[in-house]
Amino acid sequence: MTNLKCSVTNCVYNDSNLCSKDEINVGGEHAKEQSCTCCESFCNCNHASASAKNVCQTATPQTKIGCEAVNCIYNENRYCHADHIDISGNGAGTAQQTECATFKMR
């Protein structure tokens, strides 16, 4: 698993810059730069349903990361194999306002 640091503080899954989901998905199938990726698992705190809040696990740095950004050097069979990634987008209101700050073009 990959160590994840998330600065998207208004995501319902963010717990002290860690993610309380045991697996997230990074989007950006045609991405050629960081800004074309996003955390598809983002859920805005202000719009989260009770059921979304109930699926939270204990937040840990190790997170399984599904990854659609097939042009990234860390993508292997649609999973991230970087030792560490950063998800950024503080103040994001939608998943499209987040990004994988670790994305590197092949």
UniProtKB/TrEMBL annotation:
Which residue range or ranges hold the DUF1540 domain?
Answer: 5-42, 65-103
InterPro entries linked: DUF1540 (IPR011437)
> Known Pfam families for this protein?
DUF1540
Q: What is this protein called?
A: DUF1540 domain-containing protein
- Write down the species: Candidatus Fimimorpha faecalis
